[in-house]
Request: fold
Amino acid sequence: MSEREREIWNRRYSEPGFRMGDGPKRFLVELAELLPGRGAVLDLGCGEGQNLVWLAGRGLVGTGVDVSVVGLNKAAALSEAMEIDLELIEADLDVWDPGGRQFQVVLCSHVLLRELVPKMRRAVAPGGLLLMENMMVGAPIPLRYVVETQEMLHWFLGFRILHYREITRDGIPVAQLAARRPG
Ligand SMILES: C[S@@+](CC[C@H](N)C(=O)[O-])C[C@H]1O[C@@H](n2cnc3c(N)ncnc32)[C@H](O)[C@@H]1O
Reply:
């Protein structure tokens, strides 16, 4: 990621309140029944931490990675207020690598980094869950941040698809995926 993009996210998160909404993303809540009751969750591009705090509140041990220190500071404050422990890592996902670490749940919500897909696949523990939502072609954002129809399904060939939907939410086309790594 360029320094300019990092600054843009830091500036966005510097505004009062939660830029990405007060609570977890709706698709996460709607797919809650797929979540394990315990284990580790990795949130890639966790931003202000709403999704991660919600997941940790459900019994998962949370790790979040984001390039924005301002977003991460908000995530830290939110987790402290909720008395939840999180591991927060400031890093550029273009270069960050989970190494050998694996997680029962890997979440990637509205962070479209195609080069990250192989790392994401590796980071899901055998039998673990991948959760993803992205805007689709037709959304009012630059084309490189939107997925094509069925694109996310191709990224996770070999995983068992538990949920896949292309819907319009609040006027914005989005694709949602929940997939289980075999094992
Ligand atoms: C649209 S927000 C989504 C935040 C959160 N996942 C959610 O669903 O509300 C995108 C987030 O991805 C982060 N991000 C984008 N590119 C990144 C990169 N290369 N490395 C780390 N974080 C990145 C941004 O800082 C921002 O917090």
Summary: The chain has a mean pLDDT of 96. The longest strand covers residues 124-135.
